[in-house]
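User: Reviewer 2 asked us to show a designed sequence for the structure in our supplementary figure. I'm pasting the structure tokens here. Could you produce the per-position amino acids so we can include them in the response letter?
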């Protein structure tokens, strides 16, 4: 690119610089999506931290961001180095973010299975081979079912799992732990229960009651504290990289069209970074590696997530580093005056168009539920929390299910990634304010229809027609989200020009810290909403462990708990986002910075800069 086509005096980025920047941004967004979509699932469904604790952790972290983001924006704007004010952070921060991304996964389990979890009903022959009456000393583990007391008795006489000479728990050919064979005894009949269906039901209830032990006391506090502190630490370091990464776009070029192009491609690439959302689906592939070492279902899954977190984060960090190595700051900031944090707050909220965008973004917070809940919904609703067993039926690939899921994924990602690429052309033909309000208001409709259609189908959308309808709805919802993200970034960059024109300063760092703040505060608000809904329906801590256990034993998530969990998830990705989208249009209906006014402002700023450069050359 080198120079802008319309004016040889306008500095802009090269193709190589833009490619490096976009590569780095892709890596950074992979990291973001590992945390944004994978960590919530990991906390709740892998190590079983209570839902309300999870939502409070995410929400309180966002309160801190309300202070931390503008602070970081101020620091960026005060930075003066030979590389510029944003580039230094892009050079040195990625490695730090890599470490803080991995830390939240290195936590202990809040609810752990014990030996009483790994049990199964003994074979029928064991009933006849069981010699003599049950000794009173065997009747230690009691469960009440339909007001009758039953006792679960291990055939071997011990609850301890079978181990080899090295103390390793024995596993079968598929690396599953060899479970203890148990019998069910009732004092009422003074006999073993021979009704196998009844005995299986009693064993299931027994596992749910005694198979998992929740952490208590200091251990529980430490687990929650580790989750909170590590997540806050990640948020702080991520901000140190995020604000310069977006703020540098207004310093890479003086040309409005090139800036809009860079931001549009950046938003599209940011959506490509959503491959980080696959983290939750890929992790179980590492599970057998740890089962072979004798770990049980729950602990092997935890280790699988830790392994993939390390692998994906290291890979994404390498990509992230390209941004710092590639970008050049071409808009001079050496003569800019710097401001205190207090003054920057006044600048942010004194800039009316920026204030309108900020409020609109906060009102749109519930759309973050799509990212927070999506992978949990996919794992449970479509794959019954066992991708391997669902994709392979009788050792044959379940092609039908794969095609149906692809239909849905193509709709969502097509809307979020492909459609926003057309936004620059729309900007050239239509007012940004009108486009923003259009996508906000119209986008509320497909979001609302997702839950409505789910209810109309009786909770079963896994038909060809159902998946096609859902794909269209997700495409429309995703297109609105992706387009708004592009428009938001472009409009914030316009606000930086507006501030320079009004007051002679370019608060790139502070204003783009507002974008980071919107994203993370939105995630916090969305987490509170999801935590509240999950708590109401009981999708929390030990109940999630019990759900996982029931699914392993043949239950169907779509009908489990009368479908309450499935309905809650579809509600979360539909109704709150629809309400948020509708509300978000209120602050921008009278958006003050028109495109015509911004063009006039930018022309005057470029003339002023050119005049200053001419004067400097003459001196």
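Assistant: Here is a per-position design you can include in the supplement:
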């Amino acid at each position: 690119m080198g120079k802008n086509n319309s004016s040889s005096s306008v500095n802009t980025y090269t193709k190589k610089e833009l490619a490096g920047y976009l590569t780095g941004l892709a890596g950074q967004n992979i990291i973001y999506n590992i945390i944004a979509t994978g960590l919530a699932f990991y906390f709740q469904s892998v190590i079983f931290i209570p839902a309300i604790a999870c939502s409070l952790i995410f929400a309180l972290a966002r309160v801190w961001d309300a202070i931390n983001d503008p602070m970081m924006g101020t620091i960026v704007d005060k930075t003066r180095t030979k590389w510029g004010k944003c580039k230094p952070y892009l050079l040195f921060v990625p490695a730090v973010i890599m470490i803080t991304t991995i830390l939240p996964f290195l936590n202990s389990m809040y609810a752990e299975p014990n030996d009483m979890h790994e049990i199964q009903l003994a074979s029928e022959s064991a009933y006849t081979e069981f010699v003599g009456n049950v000794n009173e000393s065997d009747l230690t583990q009691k469960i009440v079912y339909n007001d009758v007391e039953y006792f679960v008795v291990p055939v071997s006489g011990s609850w301890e799992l079978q181990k080899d000479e090295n103390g390793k728990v024995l596993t079968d050919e598929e690396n599953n732990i060899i479970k203890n064979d148990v019998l069910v005894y009732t004092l009422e009949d003074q006999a073993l229960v021979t009704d196998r269906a009844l005995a299986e039901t009693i064993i299931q209830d027994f596992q749910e009651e005694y198979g998992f032990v929740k952490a208590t006391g200091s251990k529980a506090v430490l687990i929650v504290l580790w989750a909170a502190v590590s997540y806050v630490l990640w948020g702080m370091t991520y901000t140190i990289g995020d604000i310069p990464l977006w703020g540098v776009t207004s310093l890479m070029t003086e040309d409005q069209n090139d800036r809009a192009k860079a931001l549009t491609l950046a938003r599209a690439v940011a959506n490509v970074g959503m491959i980080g959302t696959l983290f939750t689906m890929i992790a179980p592939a590492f599970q057998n590696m740890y089962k072979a070492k004798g770990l049980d279902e729950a602990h092997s899954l935890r280790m699988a997530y830790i392994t993939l977190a390390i692998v994906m984060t290291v890979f994404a960090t390498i990509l992230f580093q390209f941004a710092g190595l590639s970008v050049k700051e071409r808009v001079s900031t050496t003569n800019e005056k710097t401001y205190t944090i207090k003054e920057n707050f006044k600048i942010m909220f004194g800039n009316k168009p920026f204030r309108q965008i900020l409020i609109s973004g906060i009102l749109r917070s519930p759309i973050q539920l799509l990212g927070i809940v999506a992978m949990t919904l996919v794992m449970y609703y479509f794959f019954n929390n066992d991708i391997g067993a669902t994709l392979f039926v009788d050792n044959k690939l379940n092609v039908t299910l794969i095609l149906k899921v692809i239909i849905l994924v193509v709709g969502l990602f097509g809307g979020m990634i492909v459609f926003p690429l057309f936004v620059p052309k729309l900007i050239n033909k239509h007012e940004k304010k009108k486009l923003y309000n259009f996508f906000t208001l119209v986008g509320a409709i497909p979001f609302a229809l997702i839950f409505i259609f789910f209810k109309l189908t009786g909770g079963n959308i896994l038909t060809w027609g159902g998946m096609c309808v859902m794909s269209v709805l997700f495409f429309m919802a995703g297109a609105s989200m992706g387009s708004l993200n592009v428009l938001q970034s472009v409009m914030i960059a316009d606000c930086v020009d507006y501030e320079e024109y009004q007051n002679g300063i370019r608060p790139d760092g502070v204003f783009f810290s507002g974008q980071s703040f919107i994203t993370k505060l939105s995630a916090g608000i969305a987490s509170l909403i999801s935590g509240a809904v999950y708590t109401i329906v009981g999708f929390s801590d030990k109940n999630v462990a019990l759900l996982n256990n029931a699914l392993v034993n043949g239950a169907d998530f779509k009908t489990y708990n009368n479908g309450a969990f499935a309905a809650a998830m579809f509600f979360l990705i539909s109704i709150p986002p629809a309400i948020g989208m509708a509300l978000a249009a209120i602050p921008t209906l009278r958006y003050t910075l028109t495109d015509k006014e911004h063009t006039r402002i930018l022309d005057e700023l470029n003339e002023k800069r050119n005049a200053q450069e001419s004067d400097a050359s003459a001196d």
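For the response letter, you might also mention the following. Confidence is low (pLDDT under 50) at residues 1-8. The longest helix spans residues 464-503.
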